[in-house]
Design brief:
heterodimer; A: alpha/beta; Rossmann fold; 3 domains; 7-stranded mixed sheet; 6-stranded parallel sheet; 15 strands; about 50% helix; about 15% strand; elongated; B: alpha/beta; 20 helices; about 45% helix
Chain lengths: ~475, ~500
C-alpha cells in the first residue's frame, strides 16, 4: 500500500524532470532522473514532490549541498522518510505537479468575505480570467507548507465574495499541488511570513514565470500610517517579490515605490523584477431612486446644505483631520454645506472620532457613517456636490476614480496616484494635502463656484471609461502573454 | 502648578526671543509671555515656530500630531483665545512625559550631535566604533565646535550629557565596555533644543525616539543629517530577526523628513537613494544622499606580523555568524575541498546569536566530529585576532549584504588578502585591490574561489602587491569629510 503512493510520487517527479508522463517509477529511476538534471531547481522539485512540502530557499540550498556531498540518493531517502506530524496512519496525500499551468495563489481572498480595495481588485480580475482562460486557483494547506486547489465554496468566495458557509470538510485529503514551469501569479497581498518565504522559493526555483499585482509600498514608505507590525510582514513580502519576474503596479505612483525599492535591492546582488504599470480602472454603478431616497433620509439631507462627501476609512494616511480643519474654516466663513464621511474606523482613528463629537456639539453639519451597503454608496456619490480625498499616499485612491466615474468632481491630492487619476479623467481640483489651507481653498472653489463645478462635472462625465474588463485583459497580457 | 510655573517661566524666557523676535522680555510673567507668544503664533503659525513653542510649553519635543493639533486649534480660534489654546496644548504631552519641570537650553551656534546610544552604553561594535572614532577626532579639532546630546529615557527630548557619558563617547577605553547610564540621569538634566542649526545623527536612531525625531526633521527647521549605514533590516529582512524590519521602518519614517543622508559606502547610498525615490509617490523628495565612505586603515598602524609557524595554511573568517554573512556556504566549500584532500585550517572569529547561528553551529559540530580542521572563537581577544590575521593565507568575507563590510577593510589593513563578494559595498572596497571577488550566492563560484586562493601562490602574491599599493584612507579623512558634508551649505556629489 505504502509503496503505491511512493512510486506515484517518484513517477510524478520523473515526469516533471523528463517532461514525460510516467505514472509510477522506482527510486533508482528517480535518482537517475535527478542526476540527469542536477541543480537547485531540480532539488526544489525533489523536496516539493517527494516531501509534499514546498521548501524554503534555505532548505533547497541545504538539500542541494547534501546532494553534492553525499549523493542524490541520500537526500531522496531522507525526504521520503521525513517525519510527518499528522496522518501517520493514513496513506499520504497524492502529489500532483501542475506543469505549465497558470497557477494563481488567492488564499486570502478565498477565505474572506471582506471587500477591501485589494480584494475588490483580486476578485474583479480573477473572475474574468476564470471565464476567459485556463487557470488553477490554489490556496495554502493547514500545514502552511503546501498548496492545494480551492474547494467549490472557496472558489465562489474568491470570485464573488459570497458568504462563508461551514468549513469545508476533507480538504486535508485533497491532492497537494506543485507548480512547475508555467506561471505563478499573486493577485493579492501575501502578508504571512510562512507563505511569502515559500513563495520566494517558488519564484526562484520552480521555473515559473511569476508575477504579482503591486498595490503600494506604504508599510515601507509611510510606516507611521499603518498598524504596528505591518512593516515586517511587508518586508518579507518584498523578499518574495525580489525573486519574481514581474510586478504590475496599479498606478505609476505605486510603480515609483516599487522602483525605489528595487534600487534599494540592487546592492544585495539581486536584480529584482521588471515593473510596469497596469492602471486600475474606475467604475461606478448607477444610483437608484430608492437608494437616493434612503441615503437622503439617513443623513437628513437638506437642499440648503449641499453634500460634501469623504469616502474612506479613518486612518491617519487619509488625512481626515485636515478635512475637518478645512471644513471648520469654511463653516466659520459662513459657507453652508453638510460634510459626510463614509468609512469604518481604523487604526488610530480616536482623534477623528473626538473631533467629530466636538463639531457636533458646536452644531456643525458633519456626520460619519460606516458599514453602508453599496447602493447607498453609489447614491452618496451621485448626491454629493463634490467629494474630498486629500490622502497623503495611495497606491490608487479608488474613491477618486469612483467619484469621477459617477460624474461627481473631487478635491484631491496634487501628487501620486490621485493626480494620475485626475489627469486621466479630469473633473478634479488638485490641492496640497500637507496644507489645510490648500484643502480649504480647493473645497471653497467648488462650494462657491457653480461654473467651475459644472465644468468639472462635464469633464468627469465625458472621461474615457476604462473598466475591469480592460484591466483584466491588460494584466493577463503583461503577466502571462508578453515576453 | 506653583512648582511647574517656575521652570515654565524659565523656558518661556529662553524661547520668547526666538518666537517674538525681541529680547526685552525680562520681567514679563508666565501669563504675559504665553499671551504674547500665543498671539504671535496665531498671526504666524509657521511649523518651526509651533515646534519650538511646544518644546517651550511642554519640556518635551512634540510629535507631528501635536504640531498639527496646535496649528488647527489656533486656526479655529479667535486672536483673543490664542493664549488659552497655547496653554491647552501644553497639557497633554507635558503630563504624559513627566518632564514639564525641565529646563531647556536653545542651541543655535553649533551643530547638535545625537550620540544617544554611545553616551548611554559602553558597547563598542560596528556603528559605535564609527561614532567614537569620528567624534574623538572632531573633539580634537578646535575648528569643529559641536554639542553632544542623548535623549531622555522615554525618548521625549534631547538632553545634555553627564561628564561620564561624554567620556564614554570621546575617550572610550575597553574597560568602559559594560557600562550603562542609570535611568536617574534624566533627573534634573537640561534639555537641549536645536534651533536654526545642524542636527547630526551619526547613530541609527532607536525605535522609541523616531516619532519625535521625525517631527523634529519635518517641522523644526533645523537641517538634519544622518549617517546612513544600510537598509539591511528591510531589504534583507529574511536574514535578520523578524521584528527588525518594523523597528527599522520607524527609523525610515524619520529619514523621510531629513535633509541629508551621508552613506558609509556608495552602495549603501544607493539603498537610501532608492528609498528617497519611492517618496515621490507621497509628494516628498526625501533627503539628499551622498557617500562618505568609511576608512580602510582601521588597525594596521604599529602592527608587526609574526612568523607563521603552523603546519597548515589558515583561512580566516571574521564576523558574527549569521545567515546574512553566508558562512555556511564557506563551510560547504571547505568540506568539498577537505574531501578532495586539501589540507588547511578554517578559523571563524566573531560572536553569534544562538538562533541565527543554529545551522552554522550544527554544521561545525558535524565537521569537527569528522576530524576537519575548523575552529570557532566567539570571544576572541584583540591579540588572538591580530595573530590570526598575521597567520592567515587569506581571509574570506562573502556576505550577502553589507553597508560597508568592516572586516574586509580590517583584513586589508593587516595585509591579508580577502576572498570577497562581487557586488555591493564589498565589491566597492575590493575594487581597489587585494581582494578576489566571487558571487556569494553561487556555491560553485565560492568553491572555485576558495580552491584558487588555496592553490594559486601567484594569485596571492599579486593580491599582496595590490594590497600594498592601495592608497590608505584614514579615520581622519573620514571625520573631516563627514563634518564638511554635514555642515556645508551645498552637498556635493549627491547620488
Amino acid at each position: 500500500m505504502s509503496g503505491d503512493w511512493l512510486s506515484r510520487r517518484y513517477g510524478a517527479l520523473v515526469s516533471a524532470i523528463d517532461e514525460t508522463d510516467t505514472a509510477t517509477a522506482t527510486i533508482a529511476q528517480a535518482v537517475a532522473a535527478i542526476e540527469r538534471a542536477p541543480g537547485e531547481e531540480t532539488t526544489w522539485l525533489v523536496l516539493a514532490v517527494l516531501g509534499a512540502q514546498l521548501p524554503t530557499e534555505r532548505e533547497v540550498q541545504s538539500a542541494h549541498r547534501q546532494m553534492e556531498l553525499n549523493g542524490v540518493r541520500s537526500v531522496v531517502e531522507a525526504t521520503v522518510t521525513a517525519p510527518r506530524r499528522l496522518g501517520a496512519l493514513r496513506s499520504p496525500n497524492t502529489v500532483e505537479v501542475l506543469r505549465n499551468a497558470v497557477v494563481i495563489d488567492i488564499m486570502h481572498t478565498a477565505q474572506t468575505e471582506l471587500a477591501t480595495g485589494i480584494q475588490r481588485v483580486a476578485r474583479e480580475t480573477v473572475r474574468r480570467w476564470h471565464t476567459d482562460h485556463d487557470v488553477v486557483f490554489v490556496t495554502w494547506r493547514d500545514d502552511r507548507r503546501s498548496l492545494r486547489r480551492l474547494t467549490p465554496s472557496e472558489q465562489a468566495r474568491a470570485l464573488y465574495g459570497t458568504h462563508a458557509t461551514t468549513r469545508d470538510k476533507h480538504v486535508g485529503r485533497m491532492p497537494i499541488v506543485v507548480p512547475w514551469q508555467g506561471h505563478f501569479l499573486l493577485p493579492e497581498l501575501a502578508a504571512e511570513p510562512w507563505r511569502t518565504e515559500r513563495i520566494a522559493s517558488i519564484a526562484r526555483f520552480a521555473r515559473t514565470r511569476s508575477g504579482v499585482i503591486g498595490f503600494d509600498c506604504v508599510p515601507l514608505t509611510s510606516v507611521e500610517t499603518v498598524a504596528d507590525g505591518m512593516a515586517s510582514h511587508f518586508a518579507w513580502n518584498l523578499g518574495a517579490v525580489a525573486h519574481m519576474d514581474r510586478v504590475a503596479s496599479i498606478s505609476r505612483a505605486a510603480g515609483t515605490e516599487y522602483g525605489g525599492w528595487r534600487r534599494m535591492l540592487a546592492p544585495t546582488g539581486i536584480a529584482g523584477p521588471q515593473i510596469e504599470t497596469v492602471f486600475l480602472p474606475s467604475e461606478a454603478e448607477d444610483a437608484t431612486d430608492a437608494g437616493l431616497a434612503e441615503f437622503k433620509q439617513l443623513i437628513e439631507y437638506s437642499e440648503s446644505d449641499p453634500l460634501v462627501l469623504v469616502v474612506g476609512s479613518h486612518e491617519p494616511r487619509k488625512n481626515h483631520m485636515a478635512v475637518l480643519s478645512a471644513a471648520e474654516t469654511l463653516w466659520a466663513e459662513g459657507l453652508r454645506f453638510q460634510l459626510v464621511f463614509i468609512g469604518g474606523n481604523s487604526w488610530n482613528s480616536r482623534a477623528f472620532t473626538a473631533q467629530i463629537t466636538r463639531l457636533h456639539s458646536a452644531n456643525r453639519k458633519v456626520l460619519s457613517v460606516s458599514g453602508i451597503a453599496d447602493p447607498l454608496l453609489w447614491a452618496a456619490y451621485r448626491l454629493a456636490r463634490f467629494t474630498v480625498f486629500p490622502s497623503v499616499n495611495e497606491g490608487f485612491g479608488l474613491p477618486v476614480g469612483e467619484s469621477l466615474s459617477a460624474g461627481t468632481p473631487v478635491v484631491t491630492s496634487q501628487h501620486g496616484s490621485m493626480r494620475e487619476i485626475a489627469e486621466l479623467a479630469g473633473g478634479a481640483v488638485l490641492v496640497d494635502p500637507y496644507d489645510d489651507d490648500s484643502i480649504a481653498e480647493g473645497m471653497r472653489s467648488l462650494l462657491d463656484g457653480d461654473e467651475l463645478l459644472a465644468r468639472l462635472r462635464v469633464e468627469a462625465l465625458n472621461h474615457p471609461t476604462r473598466g475591469w474588463d480592460d484591466y483584466a485583459v491588460e494584466l493577463w497580457d503583461y503577466l502571462v502573454v508578453s515576453d | 502648578m506653583a512648582e511647574a510655573a517656575e521652570p515654565l517661566l524659565a523656558r518661556l524666557r529662553q524661547g520668547a526671543p526666538h518666537l517674538l523676535g525681541r529680547d526685552d522680555i525680562g520681567d514679563l510673567t508666565v501669563g504675559a509671555l504665553a499671551s504674547e507668544i500665543g498671539r504671535s503664533l496665531w498671526a504666524d503659525p509657521a511649523h518651526d515656530r509651533l515646534w519650538l513653542a511646544l518644546v517651550v510649553m511642554t519640556g518635551s519635543f512634540p510629535e507631528a500630531s501635536d504640531v498639527h493639533r496646535l496649528r488647527r486649534s489656533l486656526r479655529s480660534a479667535a486672536r483673543s483665545e490664542a493664549m488659552a489654546v497655547l496653554l491647552t496644548s501644553a497639557v497633554r504631552p507635558a503630563s504624559s512625559d513627566g518632564l514639564g519641570g525641565s529646563a531647556i537650553r536653545i542651541v543655535s551656534d553649533r551643530p547638535v550631535v545625537d550620540v544617544d546610544f554611545c553616551a548611554r552604553h559602553g558597547h563598542n561594535s560596528g556603528i559605535q566604533r564609527v561614532v567614537r572614532e569620528t567624534l574623538a577626532r572632531w573633539a580634537a579639532d578646535d575648528d569643529k565646535q559641536f554639542e553632544l546630546v542623548a535623549w531622555t529615557n522615554r525618548g521625549s527630548a534631547m538632553r545634555e550629557l553627564r561628564s561620564e557619558e561624554e567620556a564614554r563617547v570621546l575617550e572610550w577605553t575597553s574597560d568602559k565596555r559594560a557600562q550603562a547610564s542609570p535611568r536617574g540621569f534624566d533627573d534634573g538634566a537640561v534639555l537641549v533644543v536645536p534651533w536654526k542649526t545642524d542636527v547630526i545623527l551619526p547613530e541609527v536612531a532607536r525605535e522609541h525616539i523616531c516619532s519625535r525625531l521625525a517631527a523634529l526633521a519635518q517641522f523644526s527647521g533645523n537641517r538634519v543629517t544622518a549617517v546612513g549605514y544600510d537598509t539591511i533590516p528591510i531589504v534583507s529582512a529574511q536574514d535578520v530577526p523578524y521584528s527588525e524590519a518594523n523597528r527599522f521602518a520607524k527609523y525610515l519614517w524619520a529619514v523621510k523628513h531629513m535633509d541629508r543622508v551621508l552613506s558609509i559606502s556608495r552602495s549603501a547610498g544607493e539603498e537610501f537613494a532608492g528609498f528617497a525615490n519611492a517618496l515621490a509617490a507621497q509628494g516628498l523628495v526625501g533627503p539628499q544622499i551622498a557617500a562618505v565612505s568609511l576608512p580602510i586603515d582601521t588597525v594596521g598602524a604599529g602592527f608587526t606580523p609574526t612568523a607563521d609557524t603552523s603546519a597548515l595554511p589558515l583561512v580566516l573568517s571574521v564576523g558574527t555568524q549569521e545567515p546574512r554573512k553566508n558562512q555556511v556556504s564557506l563551510l560547504y566549500a571547505a568540506e568539498q575541498l577537505w574531501r578532495e584532500g586539501y589540507a588547511f585550517e578554517l578559523m571563524f572569529i566573531g560572536g553569534a546569536d544562538a538562533e541565527l547561528a543554529r545551522d552554522f553551529d550544527n554544521l561545525v559540530t558535524r565537521l569537527k566530529a569528522a576530524g576537519r580542521t575548523v575552529t570557532v572563537h566567539r570571544h576572541a581577544t584583540d591579540e588572538l585576532l591580530q595573530a590570526a590575521y598575521a597567520r592567515a593565507r587569506f581571509s574570506a568575507f562573502i556576505s550577502l549584504h553589507e553597508g560597508f563590510g568592516l572586516p574586509v577593510g580590517e583584513s586589508l589593513a593587516y595585509g591579508t588578502p580577502v576572498l570577497t563578494s562581487n557586488y555591493g559595498s564589498i565589491e566597492e572596497i575590493a575594487r581597489d585591490g587585494g581582494c578576489y571577488p566571487v558571487d556569494p550566492r553561487d556555491d560553485e563560484a565560492v568553491l572555485a574561489g576558495l580552491r584558487r586562493m588555496l592553490d594559486d601562490d601567484a594569485l596571492i602574491e599579486t593580491l599582496l602587491a595590490q594590497l600594498a599599493a592601495r592608497v590608505p584612507r584614514t579615520w581622519q579623512d573620514y571625520a573631516d569629510e563627514l563634518w564638511l558634508a554635514a555642515t556645508s551649505e551645498i552637498l556635493e556629489n549627491t547620488l
